[in-house]
Amino acid sequence: MELFDTHAHFVPSAEQIAAQLVRAKAAGVGRVAAVGGSEELNAGARCALSVARQGGEVAVTVALGYDRDQAGKELPAIDYSGAGAVGEIGLDYFYEGVARDLQIGLFSRQLATAGELDLPVIVHTREADDDTLAVLRELPSRGIIHCFTGGTKFCGRLLDLGFFVSLSGIVTFRAAENVRTLARYIPLDRLLIETDSPYLAPVPMRGQANEPAFLRHTAEFLAGLLQIPLDEFARRTTDNAELVFKK
């Protein structure tokens, strides 16, 4: 059995990353997408790739980009050499923070870059359904809607655009019946799983810093929810992830 964590963030510490990857391998996680979103997270993703190449415990794919919190800042250009995706990018209107027009501008520019590079994107969207759909329709892309918690109607429209949808450990939370509804709604050939580490540790690890090894708890929960053998669930979701990240 091999699981694919399609979204993990790392601090740029080779020692810490190496220990996490060893634990991930022991838990059945054979692939991890190390995802950026800021200068520090991009550095962490590149560090994870370097560690993986040296240690060989887990295969790492790198996504580099700037998230909505970076909109309006003066940002250095990203060297995408070796990257397997652009991300995470997207829109988040949950908090009153960065202006929406600035978020949309940054999101759009990075979608255009992904198109030029023929790379998939990793998209964050929260309380921004209409604008997310509008931008994705204007700049057709492929990739992942990560840590999705929206409604089934919005999900259906994202699926219609060709995206894969990734669920995190939130699905294990007692109050997250909406995400369990999504798990039943998303076709198995479009479903992905992730940790979004170091955030959102699943039950029974809540309260701890999340890490790729904890993906197994989410996988076990979802396999049970969908009444699928764990080995089959792992194979199907890993196959889906590999489809996303190959050119």
Explain this structure.
The protein is α/β, with parallel strands linked by helices. It has one domain: Metal-dependent hydrolases (TIM Barrel). Helices cover 42% and strands 19% of the residues. It is built from eight helices and eight strands. It has helices spanning 14-26, 39-55, 100-117, 129-138, 152-160, 177-185, 215-226, 230-245, and strands spanning 3-8, 29-37, 59-66, 85-92, 121-126, 143-145, 164-167, 191-193. An eight-stranded parallel beta sheet has the order 1-2-3-4-5-6-7-8. Helix 3 (100-117) runs parallel beside helix 4 and helix 7 (215-226) packs across helix 8 (230-245).
> In CATH, what is the class?
Alpha Beta
> Which value, in Å, is the CA radius of gyration?
17 Å
Shape: globular
Q: Beta-sheet strand percentage?
A: 15-25%
The overall pLDDT average reads: 97
Return the domain count: 1
Helix-strand pattern, N to C? EHEHEEHEHEHEHEHH
- SS-based structural class? alpha/beta
Number of helices: 8
Total number of strands: 8
CATH homologous superfamily assignment: Metal-dependent hydrolases
Spans of 5+ residues with little confidence (pLDDT < 50)?
A: none
Q: End-to-end span in angstroms?
A: 24 Å
